[in-house]
Amino acid sequence: MKVILSVNAGSSSVKVSVYRAEFGQDPVQLAEAQISGLTAPPAKLDYTRGDTTVSKDKEIDTKTISQKDAFDQLVETLTSDKDLPELSSRDDIGIVCHRIVHGGDHTKPRLISEKTYHSLEQLNDLAPLHNANSLGIVHACIRDLPGARNVACFDSQFHSSLPPHIRTYPIDQKIAKSNHLRKYGFHGLSYAFITRQAAQFLGKNVEDVNLIALHLGSGASACAIKGGQSWDTSMGLTPLAGLPGATRSGSVDPSLVFHYASDVGKLSPASTKDLHISRAEEILNKESGWKALTGTTNFGVIASQYSSDPKMALAFDLFVDRISAFIGSYYVSLKGQVDALVFAGGIGEKSDALRRAVVEQVGCLGFGIDESVNKKKIGGVVEDLTKEGARHRVLVCATDEQFEMARSCALDREFW
Q: Which residues bind ATP (predicted)?
C-alpha cells in the first residue's frame, strides 16, 4: 500500500488530495485540502476527510502566500490530523503526482528526474499562469520529501492523438517544428476522466464512445472525443486559445492586441529571471475575459444578474455563443455521430442557467435538456439531463483531475 498525494496548483489556488492505493487498483480518496484566494487575500483553507468537513473557508493568517507556501501548509494540515493515521508524517508519502499544464510532446505521465524537470522548465513561457507554480512545488517536494517519487501528469497528454490536419498551424513548417509551434490542448486530465466515466454510464467501451465535452470553469475549453480519443480541442499552443474565461480573452483576431496598446511587445513588470511574460500575454491572460466585461470573475454572479445588468447579460450571452459555436463545429467534425454532450468543470457542473441556454442554442442538432432534472443539484459522478425524445444525450459529469492523476500512478509499475 502507498499513500499518493495528487497536487493541483492553479493560478490562485493549490489543492491536495490524499489517496490510499494498491498497485493495479483504483485508488481510494482519504482526504482533500485546498487553499484558495492566493491572488486575492485573505487566502482560505478548506479541508475534508471522507464525508467530514474539518475546515471551511478558514482564513490563513498572512497577507501574502505563494503556491509553495500554500502546499507546505496543506501538508502540515494533513500530517497533523490525528484522524488521518495513514499520513501521520511526511515519510508516509510514497508518490506525489503533479498536474503540469503544458507537457509539450509528452504523451504519458513521467517520473520526474533532474533531466525531466529542466525540460519542463523550458515550457514555462507557454503556460505562464500554471507551469511555473507547479514546478515550484515539484522542486519543494524533491527537497523536502526525499522518500517520495514525484510524477508529472500532463494536461496536454490526452490530446497527443490530435490528427496532423487539426494540430498544425498554417505557418512555415520548418519554424513551427523547430520552435514546437502547434496545437497541444489542455484540460486533458479532466477529459480523460470524463471519457471513461461517460462511456461507463452509457454502457459502452471507451474506444467506442464519441463525445462533445465541455470543461467550463475560470479556464474553459471544449473537446471533440472520437473513439475515446481527443479528435479536436479549443485550446491551442497555450491555454489562451478558444473559449473566454474569468480573465482570459479566448480566441481573438491575432492583430487585436497590437491595436490595444503600444507596449504589448515589451516584457511585463511581472516577468522574472526565469519567466518571461510580455504585456500582450498579460493583457490577454490576466486582464480580459469576464473580469474585463463585468468587473467580476465569479460566473455565478454573472448568471444571477443576467436580467438586471446589461454587462452581465453581455458576458453570459457571449460565453453561450462561443460554446455553441464549438459544439456546432465539433458536431460536423464528428459527422453527427455523437453519443452525448457532456458538461463539466465548476461552471458546467453548477450553472443550470448556462446548461439550459447552451442546449437551447444547439437544440437544432438534436440535443434537448429536461429542465426539471437540470435544476436539481447534481448528486452522482454522471447525471443524465436528456429531454425525453431528444436525439442525443446531455450529461453532466463531476470531473476529478486529482483522481485521474492518482489512478494513472496506481496503474503504472514504473512509479512503484
A: 15, 215-219
Residue 219 is labelled as binding a ligand: yes
R_g (Cα) of the chain, nearest Å: 21
Distance from the Cα of residue 22 to its chain's centroid: 26
Q: Which grid cell is 305?
A: 444578474
- For 289-331, what is each residue's pLDDT tens digit? 999 999 999 999 999 999 999 999 999 999 999 999 999 999 9
282 in a labelled binding site = no
Dihedral of CA atoms 152, 245, 286, 120 in degrees, nearest 10, equals 10
Reduced to 3 states (helix: H, G, I; strand: E, B; else coil), residue 230 is: strand
- 401 annotated binding-site participant: yes
Q: Minimal CA–CA distance to 195: which of 170, 228, 233?
A: 228
Going by C-alpha positions, the residue among 239, 223, 321 that lies closest to residue 288 is 239
Cell of 176: 513551427
Determine whether the annotation assigns residue 76 to a binding site.
no
CA distance 416 to 412: 7
d(CA 2, CA 94): 5
Return the DSSP state at 386.
Answer: B
Do the annotations mark residue 106 as ligand-binding? no
**Helix axis angle, 114-121 to 131-144, nearest 10°:** 160
Q: For 19-41, how does the pLDDT look when each residue is reduced to its tens digit (9 = 90+)? A: 999 999 999 999 999 998 887 77
Distance between CA atoms of 83 and 98, rounded to whole angstroms?
25
Q: Which residues are CB-contacts of 153 (< 8 A; sequence separation ≥ 6)?
A: 97, 98, 99, 100, 109, 189, 404, 405, 408, 409
Catalytic residue among 61, 81, 91, 155: 155
Edge to edge, what strands does the sheet with 220-226 contain? 229-233, 220-226, 211-216, 340-344, 393-397, 382-384
| Strand extents, DSSP E, 133-199 | 149-154
